[in-house]
Amino acid sequence: MYRSQLETDLRQELKIHRLDYLVISGDLTQGATEDEFRAAFLLVDSLVKRFGLDAGRVVVVPGNHDLHWGLSEEAYPFVPKSRLPSVLPEGRHIPAGEAGALIRDNEKYRARFAPFDEHFHRHVYPGEQYSLEAAAQFRWLERPGDGLLFLGLNSCWEIDHHFTGRAGIHPTALTRALDRLNEGAGRYDDWLKIAVWHHPVAGGEGMNPDFLERLAVHGFGLCLHGHIHEAMEGFHKYDDARGMRIVGAGTFGAPTKEQVPGIPLQYNLLTLDPASRQMRVDTRRKEKPEGAWSADARWGDKGKAPKAWYEFDPFTRSRWNRANSKFEPSSPGRRGGVG
């Protein structure tokens, strides 16, 4: 049903018959079960086949609902008080009263992302395993013909069933990715660089935003994330020449009992016009899970009629070379992707 509703909206309402990229910013499931992951894969696979995509044009990162709570619990065996170390490992234990404590088994802890890998990731990316090592959990997707680089990061690497608020970006994973940029010796300077993760960097559940400075210095102009229930947009300024647009996607699909009252289901359609260097974000809404998608007019200045879209220049550096860009619009002046 979700695929059919989305396809109808894209083809009939938006006149989009081909997508260039599909970006999913986490929370493919509710409880990280095999059935949920398989259903998510069938949705992604059908979109890939029906809109001219392939694995090299799909970016997926896990969300906090995509790590297995049961495996997380198993990674914290009980240790009686008589066998506890003199100093409990910070951030790796759960108090259990006077009887003892639950102390994390790091090897078992890594396995909480195993269902995401086994039942989803390796099917989307055949022959490719999602690393269970947190420092290696980043996705590097470069498209030289389009002058585009996507960097997918796991903002859930330190989250588990007990420590649910530890969203963040693993510093070593980010370092390894940025090292690849530096090793490119300027190859990516004129590309549009887009980072993707799950959690927001603002609000009550926002991550520590310091890592954004490292992305800005390396020329990233756009960040995409999920986790929030309503679409949002923001800007992170590093200096007068560099900054990043931040585009947050709302909830795409949820059972009626899980949908937040008064907040519609949403998705974003991003299109880039290489001639004007403008990125347009169209926000779509669906009031009921079994209903139809429509325009979501929520953007604009106070006192003016709201619009269902907004635009910005994602190229934060003036060095972008239009003559070298090989973006070829799939419709007049546009190239589209769903986020």
From TrEMBL:
Please list the coiled coil stretches: none
Tell me where the signal peptide lies.
none
What is the top-level taxon of the source organism?
Bacteria
Q: Could you tell me the keywords of this UniProt record?
A: Hydrolase, Iron, Metal-binding
MF-aspect GO terms: hydrolase activity; metal ion binding
> InterPro entries, per this entry?
Calcineurin-like_PHP, CNP_phosphodiesterase-III, Metallo-depent_PP-like
Q: Which residues form the Calcineurin-like phosphoesterase domain?
A: 10-230
Q: Which family does it belong to?
A: Belongs to the cyclic nucleotide phosphodiesterase class-III family.
Q: What is this protein called?
A: Calcineurin-like phosphoesterase
- Native species of this protein? Candidatus Kentrum sp. TC
